[in-house]
Automatic annotation (TrEMBL):
This is Tryptophan--tRNA ligase. ATP binds at residues 11-13, 20-21, 149-151, 188, 197-201. It is an enzyme of class 6 (ligase). InterPro entries: aa-tRNA-synth_I_CS, aa-tRNA-synth_Ic, Rossmann-like_a/b/a_fold, Trp-tRNA-ligase, Trp-tRNA-ligase_bac-type, Trp-tRNA_synthetase. A motif ('KMSKS' region) lies at residues 197-201. It comes from Streptomyces coryli. Its EC number is 6.1.1.2. GO terms for molecular function: ATP binding; tryptophan-tRNA ligase activity. It is found in: Cytoplasm. Catalyzes the attachment of tryptophan to tRNA(Trp). One of its GO terms (cellular component) is cytosol. Keywords: Aminoacyl-tRNA synthetase, ATP-binding, Cytoplasm, Ligase, Nucleotide-binding, Protein biosynthesis.
Length: 330
């Protein structure tokens, strides 16, 4: 009688995770450690769907793991590992590729966005089949719950479809996962353009809060965040997206309700809200930055955590892969 399983992966982006990654995904990874048998990985296989520099990829993968630990992942409470250390991901992905329709895969909106950015000459088949690898990532662990941001909902939906298809064709094998997306933080918006999501690829430097930046730099960005010509501090995602985004960030980081914040700032201006939020962000990132540096300064500890994580992950992944390969006829 085991706990429900949680699984999620995050790409080793260059430099730093941003506040959207933390509030939309990583914060839920930390919470689900307490209630779930949780598996989290840095998805370096996914990272090579666009051109990469080998040395940078290796460094960014470690930096990502260090940031996940600094954000609160506890290797005693969850399994943290690097995707490429567990070969079963790629091995199951082939089966998933052969169960996914070409038209079905062509409907993935993230592929449309990312391939448009790469241009047709730069778009690899790997970028196209990225969601199929992600399906394998999830079902290998029989995950019940997949903590992600709103932009990943479609990928969890196709995971459900393909897992159900496999089960129908070959017999009950895989758990059907649910996305775990919080309404308040499933989509954190760009500070300069609160109609698009904060993102490494689409945000301008002023629109994104990088967790490892100097707090002063982030404070300046928050103070110049785009709001509206009204003055009232009120949550209204449709008419006041900028202010609403700041309120969502503030409420989540301080574990306060939006209603309490609206009361607190009744009659006050946007300047007061921004100054206080800059302080809240500084308080969160300051220990995060030093903990990340501690892990980077102690490569042996980091390596040992990741090696143990890969071993624990492999035990589960190998069992699922063996069952799936057997069902397929291998
Ligand atoms: P990016 O979109 O910046 O490239 P990733 O694709 O690496 O970031 O996303 C890693 C995780 O963070 C995913 O679960 C994704 O859904 C989540 N995420 C990314 N951006 C945001 C955002 N602006 N708001 C909420 N969640 C986000
Ligand atoms: Na994303």
């Amino acid at each position: 009688n085991r706990r429900p399983r949680a699984l999620s992966g995050i790409q080793p982006t260059a430099g730093s995770f941003h506040l959207g990654n933390y509030l939309g995904a990583i914060r839920q990874y930390v919470a689900l450690q307490e209630t779930h048998d949780a598996f989290y990985m840095v998805v370096d296989l996914h990272a090579i769907t666009v051109p990469q520099d080998p040395k940078e990829l290796r460094a960014n993968t470690r930096l990502a793991a260090a940031q996940l630990l600094a954000a609160g992942l506890d290797p005693e409470r969850c399994t943290l590992f690097i995707q490429s250390h567990v070969p079963e991901h790629a091995q199951l992905a082939w089966v998933v590729n052969c169960l996914t329709g070409f038209g079905e895969a062509s409907r993935m909106t993230q592929f449309k966005d990312k391939s448009a950015k790469q241009g047709s000459a730069g778009t690899t088949v790997g970028l196209f089949t990225y969601p199929m690898l992600q399906i394998a990532d999830i079902i290998l662990y029989q995950a019940n719950s997949v903590p992600v941001g709103e932009d990943q909902r479609q990928h969890v939906e196709i995971t459900r479809d393909v897992a159900e298809r496999f089960n129908a064709r070959f017999g009950e094998t895989f758990t059907i996962p649910d996305p775990y997306i919080l309404k308040e933080t499933g989509k954190i918006y760009d500070l300069q353009d609160p109609t698009i999501k904060m993102s490494k690829s689409a945000s301008t430097p002023k629109g994104i809060i990088n967790l490892l930046d100097e707090p002063k730099v982030s404070a300046k960005k928050i103070k110049s965040a785009v709001t509206d010509t009204d003055t009232e501090i009120r949550f209204d995602a449709e008419h006041k997206p900028g202010v609403s985004n700041l309120l969502s960030i503030y409420a989540t980081l301080t574990e306060t309700s939006i209603a309490d914040l609206e009361t607190k700032y009744a009659g006050k201006g946007y300047g007061a809200l921004k100054t206080d939020l800059a302080e809240v962000v500084t308080e969160w990132v300051t220990p995060f930055r030093s903990r990340t540096q501690e892990y980077l300064d102690d490569p042996e500890t980091l390596d040992s955590i990741l090696a143990k994580g890969a071993e624990k992950a492999r035990a589960v992944a190998a069992e699922t892969l063996a069952a799936a390969y057997d069902k397929v006829g291998f």
